[in-house]
Design a protein that fits this description.
Strand content: 25-35%
Low-confidence stretches: none
Strand order of the largest sheet: 2-1-4-5-7-6
Number of domains: 2
Helix content: 25-40%
Oligomer: single chain
CATH superfamily of the largest domain: P-loop containing nucleotide triphosphate hydrolases
Distance between the termini: 25 Å
Number of strands: 15
């Protein structure tokens, strides 16, 4: 698991250290304080080459001159200094990546070349991508065909009933989720006890997104989940149940979660679920703009208790 990250010259992060990190890290802060930027930094750190090349479109809308947009990935649009992201993992393992157009140092190795305006992403130190993979869940609609193909991993690993049981906690009418191909394209269908099975695309974005997240958790192909606006499409009343499932499955599968939210109900639900676990494994990471940098404040179990007692604004 990641225990600490340091971001230099990346978007609004001039030089910011964030840690210690826990199993679940919920990122809050006002608009334009770097919440989504932190997820993007973790993509650079842990993502595969395809994810890195598509970084600008993973969580944001794109358009205009892409080279110009890539320059804004650098702090204050200055490409004279490389972006540097350092990470520390449990067991004291350290890892560092840099993104820039300077020559790759002799002790570095290229992870992805010709990114944006001809920059290179390279690692300094041991390669960790094979053992720590990241899976991304943005607010963009997913490809229903690819969702159906991906769900086959759940079936093959005999985890189908596990995913269905988690979903039944928020949708009691659900009896099963199946991949079916009635034409040329496979799709996911939900058995809701109706005369015919219902396409999951008709179940709403919140249900589809949870299905994707739970599926990724139970097959555990990725060790880090990056989730933007985790409460998106979900009613506040189901958040405690959802967080309870996320904490339990993440612990079972040894998966780490980084998620952003604007919702105080989401924060409270995560705290409630964390307090029911044998060990409290939640960090609230509050990001604030301070002068010319972004400051990260870790709000732990004790601080969360005080904040709730005094009704402090923590989002």
């Amino acid at each position: 698991m990641l225990t600490q990250v340091q971001l230099k010259n990346f978007r609004g992060f001039k030089d910011t250290t964030i840690g210690p990190l826990k199993r679940v890290n919920l990122i809050v802060g006002q608009n334009n304080t770097g919440k989504t930027g932190l997820l993007e930094a973790l993509v650079l750190l842990l993502g595969d080459p395809v994810q890195v090349i598509n970084l600008l479109s993973l969580f944001r809308s794109t358009g205009g001159d892409m080279n110009e947009s890539w320059r804004w990935v650098h702090y204050n649009k200055s490409t004279s200094q490389p972006i540097e992201i350092k990470a520390q993992f449990d067991g004291a393992k350290k890892y560092c990546i840099e993104l820039g157009n300077s020559a790759v140092p002799q002790h570095g190795h290229i992870l992805a070349g010709s990114i944006g305006d001809g920059e290179r992403l390279y690692a300094i130190g041991p390669q960790i991508h094979e053992s720590v993979k990241a899976s991304i869940f943005s607010t963009h609609p997913t490809d229903p065909r690819q969702d159906a193909i991906d769900y086959n991993r759940v079936v093959l690993q005999r985890k189908k009933k596990k995913v269905e049981s988690l979903l039944q906690k928020i949708e009691p009418r659900l009896q099963a989720v199946e991949t079916l191909q009635t034409g040329n394209t496979p799709l996911l269908y939900a058995d809701m006890g109706l005369s015919e099975m219902l396409p999951v695309t008709q179940m709403g974005q919140g249900f589809s997104r949870l299905l994707d997240i739970y599926s990724e958790l139970v097959v555990a192909e990725a060790k880090v989940l990056l989730i933007d606006e985790i409460e998106n499409g979900l009613h506040h009343s189901v958040l405690p149940v959802i967080w309870s499932g996320l904490f339990n499955v993440a612990a079972e599968a040894d998966v780490q979660i980084f998620a952003t939210t604007h919702s105080w109900e989401c924060v409270l639900a995560a705290d409630e679920a964390a307090r029911k676990m044998p060990e409290y494994q939640l960090n609230l990471i509050r990001l604030d703009r301070v002068d010319d940098n972004i400051k990260a404040t870790i709000i732990d179990k004790e601080a969360m208790g005080t904040a709730k007692e005094h009704h402090w604004e923590m989002r």
